[in-house]
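User: quick one - fold this with MTE bound?
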Amino acid sequence: MARAEDTPQVEDKQSELDAGAGAGADAGKRVYKRVYKARAIGSSFDSSLGGDICSPNLRFKRGWEIDERDATDEVFFRNRRDILQKFSGGIGACVGLSALGLLTSACSEAKESSLDKAQQKWADLYPAQRNDTYKVSRELTEEKDALTYNNFYEFGSHKTISRAAQKMVLEPWTIAIDGLVEKPRKVDFDDLLKAMPLERRVLRHRCVEAWAMTVPWSGFPLKALVEYARPLKSARYISFETQMDEKNMPGLRQNYYPWPYREGVSIEEGTNELAFIATAAYGKPIAKQNGAPLRLLLPWKYGFKSIKSLVRISFVKKRPNTFWEVVAPKEYGFWANVNPKVPHARWSQAQERLLGKSGKVPTRIFNGYGEFVASLYSGMAEKERLYT
Ligand code: MTE
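Assistant: Sure. Structure tokens for the protein plus MTE:
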């Protein structure tokens, strides 16, 4: 685990909340150096956790070349559960097939997507009623791709964390709401779900690593959660934290990272109608590897802002120090709005690869959501690094 002085903690008291906020640049340099050092020495780096792309020391692989022809105008989604149900014994049958050397891709997907007891309890809520304000002109990403190609550093700094993530314990799940609110409180996920207006949205997601997916999510607008939290007028930013379960999250052993994973938005961003909390995907409770039981979705920003498995939401005065900004401030800024014209420090952002496809398509400013969010940044461009 990172040492306390390197890990800006968001505490209940406002003075402590604000104390961490200014230290970003220095803390960032220290963590950035430590990530490099740990990798260079190799001593504290657990190689079983694999290599990563988001972290500052890896070269990004380029080379996929096709255009938007690859994306169809028609949105469709093949419900893979139907296929899985044809294997009457479910996972049991898969084990049998595996023993015979006949493991199919449908079976391997079953292992990544079976619902645990808590998820089964929530399953009847989904899919929620569609809100089709947000149009997409792309084919949905196959569920198996969204389930098996993930970034969730708490389970390792590589893409194949889906099996490891099944160890997450989703019940009980409590979310702390604190900082500048009328009354700090802890709310059980079940109670929060009952209080929130559920809807379904099909949204694009664009990782800073230049891959993208299009997923049918269900959940609720972040705005509804902000209203539920009753922040004070003095709150300027919202800070989010991911669960830290050291027993079940082996990636936390990468102690050169500034755990917990933290993200933040301004109040204006968080109450914009596009900011969303997902609790389900592909018509069922969200898979553990995708951020169960609830995650943030900011589809106009690079994917690292869409923090998973939330346990704490704090309303603060100063801009929070976010996980990737602390690790590599020159590469991952606070605003991180998608922009094809502003390259990452080490690669172009002009195009993106669609998960499950072999080609690439042009990246769009604000990931195509400019009509909803561009006005949030008017007048800020000269002072702020809005697009990295
Ligand atoms: N949230 C946490 N807690 N830990 C992470 O490592 N990775 C981020 C984001 N949220 C991450 C996280 C990044 S870099 C991306 S691109 C998306 O999650 C990936 O989401 P997905 O695995 O559901 O596609």
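One thing worth noting: The chain has a mean pLDDT of 80.
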